[in-house]
Specification:
With 450 residues, the chain is of the alpha/beta class. It has three domains: 114 residues, Probable tRNA modification gtpase trme, domain 1 (Gyrase A, domain 2), CATH 3.30.1360.120; 132 residues, tRNA modification GTPase MnmE domain 2 (Four Helix Bundle (Hemerythrin (Met), subunit A), Up-down Bundle); 159 residues, Rossmann fold. It is built from 15 helices and twelve strands. A six-stranded mixed β-sheet has the order 3-4-5-2-1-6. Strands 8-9-7-10-11-12 form a six-stranded mixed β-sheet, with helices on both faces. A hairpin with a 6-residue loop joins strand 1 and strand 2. It is flat and about 80 Å long.
C-alpha cells in the first residue's frame, strides 16, 4: 500500500453537467472529515457542501467514500461529483493538493489497483480498451478482458506448464529417488496441448488490432467508377467531392464508420488509371500504399462498362474472403445485364451509390466479412494486444524448443530451461513480473485520473 494520497480530475476536461474528482490513499478518511465534517458511510453517496481550507463553500457535491480494500485501487477512495464547470473542478483538485495530496500521474489509480492485487495486468489494460472502444465488438472484448477472460486462459496454460516443469525438474533435483520411469510421451502430449493453447491466443492478435484501430477498408477502382459517391453514401454525408470529371480524388480520404458491431476505417483512394497523368501517378502511388495495408477491399466497378484490369500488386491481394466487388451505377442499366464481369471467384453485388440500391445487402456482406476475422475462443471474445502477442511468441519459441529437445533426447536441464523461459513469458501477460520500466511504459499511456 502506498503512503501517499493522490488526487486528480477523473472525467475529461471541459464544460459538462457533472465532473468527478477522485482521491486515493490513506488520508481519504481524514480528508472527508476535514472537508465535510465527518467521513461518510462507505459506498453510500452523500449530498453535502464542499468547503476549502478557509471554510469557503466551493460547490454542492455528491461524495462517495470507499474503504479499502473494497475499492477500485484497493485503498481508501474519495469520489467527489461536482458541477461540470472546469473552474470548479480545478479549485477542488487544488484544495485537495493544499491539504496534502499529490497530483496523480497518468494511469496511477489503475497502477495502484494492479499493485494492490485488485486486477491483473491484462485487466488493467482492458480499462483503457474499454474507454477507447469504438464498436460493439471492441466494447464486448474489453468488458470480457476486464472480467478476467484472458487471465483465466493464461492461468490454465500456466498451471499446465507448471505441472510439466515439475515433472521434468523432478529428474534433475532428485536423481536418486525412486521416481516412476520418465514418460516422454506424457510430457510431449502436455507440452503440445500448452503450445496449441498459446497459438490459439496468439491467433487473436490481428483481430485485437482490428478492434482497437478499426478494419482498414480500402475502396479501389478506376476513375469515375463511383468510389467517392460510395464513400458518401456509406458515411451518410458529402465527405468526398464528386464530379463527372474523372480523377477527382488525387489523394486518399479516410473516415471512420460504425457498421453493425464493427468499426471500419473507410479509405477512398485515387482511381487506378491505365494511362495516368503526372499528378494521377502520385495519387495512384498512395492507393498502392493503402492497398498493401488493407484488411478489406471494396472494388467499385462501373457496371455499364467492361471491367478494367487492376495492377498486379493489387489484384494479387484480392481473395473471396477479403474482397467485395461492387457493380455500381446499377440504376443506369434499366433492364440490361451488367456489362462488367470482373471474375467468378470474387463475390459481386449490384449497387447504386446514387439511389442506394443494394446497400442493405452490401452492409450485411461487409459485416459477414468482418465477422470472419474473429478467432473462436469458445464463449470468450479475446483479442490480445501487441504486448500480449510479443510475450506469447516468446512462450511459443520456448515450447517449440523444448519439444525439439524432447524429440532429440536433449539434456533435461536445457529442456527445463526452455520451459522456465516459456513460463516467464506467459507470466508477463497477467503481470506476474517485476519489471518497473515496462509498467512505467504501459501506464503512462493512460489518462490522468484513470
Amino acid at each position: 500500500m502506498s503512503t501517499e494520497t493522490i488526487a486528480a480530475l477523473a472525467t475529461p476536461v471541459g464544460t459538462a453537467a457533472l465532473a468527478v474528482v477522485r482521491a486515493s490513499g490513506p488520508d481519504c478518511a481524514r480528508l472527508a472529515a476535514a472537508i465535510f465534517g465527518s467521513t461518510p458511510h462507505p459506498r453510500i453517496a452523500t449530498y453535502t457542501d464542499y468547503r476549502d481550507t478557509g471554510g469557503q463553500r466551493l460547490d454542492d457535491v455528491v461524495v462517495t467514500y470507499y474503504a479499502g480494500p473494497r475499492s477500485y485501487t484497493g485503498e481508501d477512495i474519495l469520489e467527489i461529483s461536482c458541477h461540470g464547470n472546469p473552474f470548479i473542478a480545478q479549485v477542488i483538485v487544488q484544495d485537495l493538493l493544499n491539504r496534502g495530496c499529490r497530483a496523480a500521474e497518468a494511469g496511477e489509480f489503475t497502477r495502484r489497483a494492479f499493485l494492490n492485487g485488485r486486477m491483473d495486468l491484462s485487466q488493467a489494460e482492458a480499462v483503457m480498451d474499454l474507454i477507447h472502444a469504438r464498436s460493439e465488438r471492441a466494447l464486448a472484448a474489453a468488458n470480457q478482458q476486464l472480467r478476467g477472460s484472458l487471465g483465466r486462459h493464461m492461468q490454465t496454460l500456466t498451471e499446465d506448464l507448471l505441472l510439466v516443469l515439475a515433472r521434468v525438474e523432478a529428474y534433475i533435483d532428485f536423481p536418486d529417488e525412486e521416481l516412476p520411469p520418465e514418460d516422454s510421451c506424457i510430457v510431449r502430449d502436455e507440452l503440445t496441448r500448452v503450445l496449441r493453447g498459446t497459438e490459439r491466443l496468439l491467433a487473436t492478435h490481428r483481430y485485437g488490432e482490428l478492434l482497437r484501430d478499426g478494419i482498414k477498408t480500402v475502396i479501389i477502382g478506376e476513375p469515375n467508377a463511383g468510389k467517392s459517391s460510395l464513400l458518401n453514401r456509406l458515411v451518410g454525408h458529402d465527405r468526398a467531392l464528386v464530379s463527372p470529371e474523372p480523377g477527382t480524388t488525387r489523394d486518399f480520404i479516410e473516415e471512420r464508420l460504425i457498421l453493425g458491431p464493427h468499426c471500419l476505417r473507410l479509405i477512398d483512394t485515387a482511381g487506378l488509371n491505365a494511362a495516368p497523368a503526372a499528378l494521377e501517378k502520385l495519387g495512384m502511388a498512395k492507393t498502392m500504399e493503402r492497398a498493401a495495408e488493407a484488411d478489406l477491399f471494396l472494388w467499385v466497378v462501373d457496371a455499364t462498362l467492361p471491367c478494367p484490369p487492376l495492377p498486379t500488386e493489387v489484384s494479387a491481394r484480392l481473395t473471396p474472403t477479403n474482397t467485395l466487388v461492387l457493380l455500381n451505377k446499377h440504376d443506369l442499366l434499366e433492364d440490361r445485364l451488367p456489362v462488367a464481369q470482373p471474375t467468378v471467384t470474387l463475390p459481386c453485388l449490384p449497387v447504386s451509390a446514387i439511389t442506394g440500391t443494394g446497400f442493405d445487402a452490401l452492409t450485411a456482406a461487409i459485416i459477414r466479412h468482418a465477422d470472419a476475422f474473429r478467432q473462436d475462443q469458445g464463449e470468450d471474445l479475446i483479442a490480445i494486444n501487441s504486448r500480449h502477442a510479443d510475450a506469447l511468441r516468446r512462450a511459443r519459441e520456448g515450447l517449440e524448443s523444448s519439444l525439439a529437445k524432447l524429440t532429440n533426447n536433449g539434456p533435461v536441464e536445457l529442456l527445463a530451461s526452455d520451459l522456465r523461459s516459456a513460463l516467464d513469458a506467459l507470466g508477463e501477460i497477467a503481470g506476474k513480473i517485476d519489471n518497473e520500466r515496462m509498467l512505467d511504459h504501459l501506464f503512462k499511456t493512460f489518462c490522468i485520473g484513470k
